[in-house]
Amino acid sequence: MTVTTSYRRPGRLARFGTLISDIVARPSGAIGLTLVLGHLLLAFIGPFIVPYDFTEMNSGLMLSKPSAAHWLGADHLGRDTLTRTLLGGREAILVTGIATPLAVLWGGLVGIFFGLAGGRVDEVLMRVVDAFLSLPWILKMLVLIVTFGTGIEVLIPTLAFFYGIPVIRIARAATHDVVARDFVQAARARGHSRGTIIRRELLPNVRDALLVEGAMRWSWMLLAFSSLSFLGFGVSPPTPDWGLMIADARGFMSFSPLGVLAPMVGLSSLIIGINLTADALAKALGIDRAQKAPV
Amino acid sequence: MLAMLLRRLGLGAITVWLVSIIIFVGVEMLPGDTCTAFLEREAQGKLLENCREDLGLNRSALVRYADWAGSAVRGDLGVSANGQKQISELVGYRLRNTLLLASGAMLVGIPLALFLGVVAALWRDKLVDIVVSTTAIFAMTIPEFVSATLLILVFSVWLGWVPGIVLTSADAPLIEFFPEVLLPIAVLTLVMTAHILRTVRSSVIETLASDYAQMATLKGVPYWQIVFRHILPNALLPTINVVALTIAWLLGGVVVIETVFNYPGLGRMMIDSISDRDLPVTQAIALIIASVYVVVNLAADILTMLANPRLRTVHMRKG
Amino acid sequence: MTSAETTERDFLAINDLSIGFRGRAGTMVPVLRNISLTVQKGESIGLVGESGSGKSTLALAMMGYLKTGLKVIEGSASFDGIEMFTQARKSLETIRGGRLALIPQNSGQSLTPTLRIGAQIAEALRLHSSLPETAHSARVTELLSQVRLPDPSTISERYPHELSGGQQQRVAIAMALAGEPEALLLDEPTTGLDVTTQAHILELLRDLARETGMAMVYVSHDLGAIARVCDRVIVMYAGEVVLEGSAKQVLRDPGHPYARGLLASIPQLKDTHLPRALDGRPPAPGQVGNGCAFVDRCVIATENCSAARPELTQGPSGAKTRCHHAERVNEIPLIGHREVSQRNLPETISLNLDDLAISYARPNLFEKLTGRENQATATVDAITIALRKGETLGLVGESGSGKSTILKSLAGLLPPLHGSVDVADGTPLPARVEDRSASQLRQIQMIFQNPDESLNPRQTIAQILAQPLKLYFGLSGEALNERSAQLLEQVRLGAHYLDRLPSQLSGGEKQRVAVARAFAAEPDLVLCDEITSALDVSVQAAVLELLDDLRRENDTSYVFVSHDLAVVRVLSDRVAVLYQGRLCEIGPTKDVYGETSHPYTEVLLGAVLEPDPDFSPTLSANDAVELSPPKAGCPFQRRCPKRIGDVCDTVIPPRRDFADGHTIWCHREDF
Asked: CA of C96, closest CA in chain B: separation in Å?
C-alpha cells in the first residue's frame, strides 16, 4: 500500500495566528493588544520621534502651561513633558520585559518539577512558597535594592526572583491537573521516560496556564517597578520614568496638573492594555482569570 | 473535621516559623549589621567591638536567631537601632493606624464588592455589568500611587474637600485622623473592591450555569429565591479565600499609600526603617505583617470549612 | 399553529416546534425541527435517541424552558391547554415543579449542595402544596419513604453529597412528587447508575405511575429502560421524530431504518451475536441537507432520499415513520450479523495472577509505627486467575467492585499490596511500570474509558500514534508515517486523520484512535477499561466489532472490564464476577451466564433489562451501596438473598468447582 499522506501538523505560525485572531475577536482584547503593541513600538522608536532632548532644561519654561512648542508644558526643571512622557516607559518595559520571561521560566520549571515529585518534598516546598508570599513584595524588593543599588542589573534578577515564586504555585497546580488525566497515565503505562512525558504530554498542556500567568506577572511587575520609582528606589534621575515623573511633579500639581496627568496616562494605558490582553488571552485559551487572587 | 482544623493550624504555624527563618537569614546576608548602621563612619575598632558586645552580635547566628525568635514569641520584638527604643512600643500606634486604614477599606469594600459583583453577574453583559466590570479593571490595574495622586488632585487640590496629606502624629487619638484618613481609605477600597468584585462576579456566573440552578428554576422556585437560597450560598463560598488573600495583599499595598499620604502607619515605618537600615525594626515589621497574612488566610480556611457542608460533614463517598 | 387548534384532550402537546441557536453566520441553526407530538393523561411515552438527537431539549421545552443560547424558531408547546412559551414567569413558576415536574439527568449535581435534603423537598411543598408549614416535615418523611429510602428522617437531615447516586435519584423523585404532579418529565433518570440500582428505580417509577395516574415522558438512550416503563415510544434522530408508535411496534419490528439499526446495535443477553454497528455519524446541527437526515448512513437509501425530506406517515406496522421506503425496512436485519466464533484456545498461559491484593490506602506514619498498617481491608483481595494466550477475560461487577483497580495494577500504575503476576514463561512481572523491561512494556497495553481524557488534546493523531511506534520500534520518517496510516486503516479510519486533533473527531473515532495506539505496540495483552461506556450504543457496537477483528488478526488477549453484562458477554471467552474486590465466580462465559451461578451473579443478571416491552427483570436483592468490603466472611453477605446464616459473616466462602473450570465461591451447597 502506498501512503500518500500530507503529514503536516498545523504550523506554529498558523496556530499563533489563530490565537491572535481569537484575542482580537473581543473588543477588549483588540483594544488591549493595540495598547500593548503601541507602547512596545514607542519604546523602540521613541528616541527618534520626540521633539526635544529629555535632559534639556530651560529655566524660562519651568512649570509652563501647554503651548504650541511644548504641547504638554514643561516640568519644574523646565524639561519638555511630552518628550519625557513618551520616553517614560522605556526603562520599565526593558526591565520587566526581561524579568517576566525569566520569572515564568524559573517559576514554571520549579513548579512542574515539584508538582511531579509530589509527596513530602512538594509539601515542604509549598510551605516555603507560602512563607515567601506572606511577606509584602515591597519589603522583599526594598531590602535587596537598598543593599545592592537600583541599577537594572539588580532590578531584573530581583523582580524575576520574587515574581517567579507565585508562578511556582500556578505551574504546580496546572501540573497536578494534567498528571491526573488519563493520557499521562497512558504514557506512564507505555513506559515512556519521565523526560518524554514532561516534554510531550505535560508542557503543551501547562503552557497555556503559564502564558496567561506570564501576562499577569508582567502587569504586576510594571506596577512594582513604577511604585519603586515613585518611592525613589527605582530609576535614577535624569532618566525619564513615569513613576519618578509623578513623584517629582506631585508637589507642583496645583500649578501644573499635566505634569502628573501625562505620565499617569502613559503608565495606566500600558498596564490596562496588558490586563485586557491577558483577559482576552485567558478566555481564548479557556482559562478563567478572574478566579485568581492578586498574590 | 477537628483533624483538618488542627492540620491547618499546624501548617500556619510552620509557615510563620519559615518566615522567621527567611527574615533572619535575609537580614544576615546583608552586608553590615545594626552597629555599622548605627555608628556609620565611626564603625571601626573598639567602638564597633563594644557596640557588638552590648547588643550580643558576637554570638553565633543560631544563638541570636533562637534569642530573637524566642523573644518574639513572648511579644518582645527587641529594641530599635536608632534611639534604642522598645520596638513593641514604637510599632503599637503604627499598627493601630494601619488597622484603621485596613478596617475602613474592608468595612466599605467587602459589602460593596459583594453587591456589585452579584449585580454584575445577574445582569451579565447588560449596561450595568459593562460599567461595573470596566471600572473594576481600571481600579484594579492602575497603581495605587497613581489613583492616590489622582484623588488628591481632584478632591484636595481642585475641590478642596479633604486635605491631601496627613499631618497628625502617630500617637494621636484615632478621631484626629478624620477627615484626612478618608482619601487613603478610598484608594484602598477602590483596589480591594475591584479584586473581590471580579471573583464574586465570575463565581456567581458559574453557579448560575449549574445543574442545581436549572433544577431550581424547573422546580418553580421564584427567581429571587433561587438567587438567595440556591445561588449565593454556593457562589460566595469560594470567594472567602479570595477576600482573605486580598486583605493580606493590602498590607503590601498600604506601604505605597501611606507614603503618598504621609500617613503614620506600619507601612511607612517599614520604608523608613529600611532607608535608615534599622534592621531590628525591619525584622519586627516583616514578622508582624507575615503573621497577619497567615492568620487571615487561616481564618478564611476555617470559615470556609464551617460554612461548607461538604467539608463540615464526614465524607461518605470518595470523589 | 396556535393553541386554539390543540384539541382539549391533549394533555401535553408540542406543535410544529423548531428550536435553534444563532450560528456564527448569524442564521438560526435548528437543533429541533418541526416536532409535533401529544401525550394524554396517564400515558407514559419514551423519547429515544443518541446524544445530540435533541431529546433532552424537547423534554425541557415541554416545561417552557430553553438552555442558554437556544431560541424558539417556530411552533409551540402547551400543557393542559396552557401555552408554555408565552406564559408569564409567575404562572410558569406555579406549573413547574407543581402540576408538571422534572426528574433530572444527574441528581447529584441537580441538588443544591448547601441545602439539606429535607429543606429542598420542603421548599417544593411550600411552593406547590396547600399543606400548612407545620405539616411539612411529616410530609417530607412520608415522601422519602414513598420512594423507598430507608430511615427517611435521617436522610432528610443529610446533605446531597452524603448520599449515594441511587439515593440522590430517589430524593429527586421525592422532590418531584412533593408537588403532586399530573405529568412527570424524566431526563435520563437512570444513566450512570449501577444495573441493580437502575432496575429498582425503574420499578419504583412504574409503581408510582400506576398508583398516581401521572403522565410520564421518559427520555433515554437506553431502549431497555424505555421498554420497561413506556406505552408509546418516539425515536428521534438529528432533531426530528423519525418513528412513533406503541412500545411493541417500535421495539419489536421498528419501521424506520435508523431505529432498526439502533436496535440491532444493542448487545443482548439472550443473543450471542456480535451487535451490528451503524456506520457513520449523525449530521451536526445545520448540516442536514434537503433530503432525509439519515440518508448517509442508511443501507436502503435511494436517490430520492437525498432529494426530498420524507414526511411522518403511517407505516406498514401501524407506527408513524419518516421514511420514503417504509415498506422495505424489513431488509435491514434486527439481529447481530455474525456469531462470535467459539474459539479453540491453546492451553499456554499468557498471564498468571496469584493471590493479588491491592489497596489504595497508604498507611501514614502513625499507623506504620503502631503496626496498624496491615489491618485495613484491601480494596481488592485474593485474585487468582490464569489468563490463556489469545483469551478474552471479562471482568464484571458494579461500581466499587475493584475491576478497574485490577487493570491499573496489571498496567503497573498501582503496585499491589501482595501477590504476584507472572508472564508466559513464568518470570514475574515487576509490579511497577518503571521496573519493567522494554518488551514487557510493549506486550501489555491499556485502553482507557474516556478517549477525551486518554488522548492528549494538544497532539495530532500522528503524534499520538508516533509515541508507541518510536518508543518500541524506533520508527521515524517515512516508515513511521506508513505504519501510522496502516494502523488507522486497521481501525477503519483513513490516513487523512493523521493531521487532525482529537477535538476534531467524534467520540467513536477518538476511541478508535486509542485502540490503534494500543495495537501499535503489537501487544500480547490489551487491558480494556470500560472502553465503550462513554460511547453511544451504535458506536459501541462498532468498537466491539473492531476488537473482535483485531484479536483474530493479531491473536491478542484481552482483559475486558465493563459494568454492562451484555457487552461483556459478546466478547468474552471467560468471565469473572467481582464484588467488593473479591472473586464471586469465574468460568466460561456460557456457564457464568447459565443456570448455575453465584447469588450475586444471579442478582446482576436478573436486573439486566432487555429492549422488549414484555420483559420484566427479577429483583432479588436490595440496591444498597456498600463503601467497603466486610471485615470477615463473604463479600456479598450484607445483600445476599440466599444467605445461609452466621457462617456467611464469619468464614470466607469455599470454592466450588464445576465442569470446564467454572468456579463459584459460596457457602451454599445446593447448586
From this structure: 5
Quick check: helix, strand or coil at residue C293? Answer: coil
Whether C84 is covered by a domain: the verdict is: yes
Task: Read off the amino acid at residue A166.
Answer: P
Same domain, C166 and C186: no
Rounded alpha-carbon distances, angstroms, from residue B204 to B209, B239, C29, C109, C116: 9, 10, 29, 16, 21
State the helix-helix crossing angle for C599-607 and C195-212, rounded to 10 degrees.
Answer: 50
A25 at interface of C, judged by CB pairs closer than 8 A = no
User: Which pTM does this prediction carry?
Assistant: 0.86
232-271 in chain B: CB under 8 A from chain C = 233-234, 237
ipTM: 0.86
Mutate to test the interface with B, among A135, A245, A269 (most CBs of B within 10 A): A135
Question: Which chains are within 8 Å of C by 3+ CB pairs?
Answer: A, B
Angstrom distance (rounded) from CA C189 to CA B47: 86
* C450 lies within 8 A of chain A by CB: yes
**Phi then psi dihedrals of residue C413, to 5 deg:** -90, -15
> Which residues span the domain enclosing C24?
1-99+182-230
Q: What is the pLDDT of residue B43?
A: 67
Closest CA to C529 of C448, C584, C586: C448
Q: Are residues C86 and C192 in the same domain?
A: yes
CB-CB: which of C97, C105, C627 is closest to B220? C97
Map out the domains of chain B as residue ranges: 91-277+292-318
Q: Is residue C74 part of a domain?
A: yes
Q: Does C448 touch chain A (CB under 8 A)?
A: yes
Domain endpoint, select from C314, C339, C364: C339
Tell me whether residue C557 is in a domain: no
Cβ contact, residue pair C175, B214, below 8 Å: no
Q: Any residues with CB less than 8 A from the CB of B282 and at least 6 apart, and which?
A: A139, A143, B27, B270, B273, B274
Asked whether residue C47 falls in the same domain as residue C149, the answer is no
Domains of chain A in start order, with CATH, are 67-285 (1.10.3720.10)
User: What SS3 class is residue B246?
Assistant: helix
pLDDT of the residue at A1: 36
CA B222, distance to chain mean position in Å, is 40
pLDDT tens-digit profile of B102-134?
999 999 999 999 999 999 999 998 999 999 998
Residues from chain B contacting residue C161 (CB–CB below 8 Å): 309-310, 313, 315-317
Q: Are residues C8 and C83 in the same domain?
A: yes
- Domain containing C83 — which CATH number? 3.40.50.300
Which residues share a beta bridge with C232?
A: C45, C246
Separation CA A170–CA A176 (nearest Å): 10
Among C285, C306, C339, residue at a domain's last position: C339
- Given CATH 1.10.3720.10, say whether it is the number of domain B91-277+292-318: yes
pLDDT digits (tens, 9 = 90+) for C245-294: 999 999 988 999 999 999 999 998 887 888 988 888 888 888 888 899 99
Indicate whether C1 and C127 sit together in one domain. no
Asked if residue C1 and residue C146 are part of one domain, the reply reads no
Is A130 within 8 Å of B15 when comparing Cβ atoms? yes
Q: Are residues C335 and C476 in the same domain?
A: no
Write down the mean pLDDT value for chain C: 89
User: Cell for A166?
Assistant: 507565585
Residue C220 lies inside a defined structural domain of this protein: yes
- In this complex, do C481 and A5 lie within 8 Å of one another by their Cβ atoms? yes
Per-residue pLDDT of chain A (295 residues; tens, 9 = 90+): 334 344 445 566 777 888 888 888 888 889 999 999 999 999 998 888 887 777 777 777 777 788 877 778 888 777 888 888 888 889 899 999 999 999 999 999 999 988 888 778 888 888 889 888 888 888 888 888 887 888 888 899 999 999 999 999 999 989 988 988 999 999 999 999 888 998 899 998 898 889 988 998 999 899 889 999 998 888 887 888 898 889 888 888 888 888 889 999 999 999 999 999 988 888 888 765 544 433 3
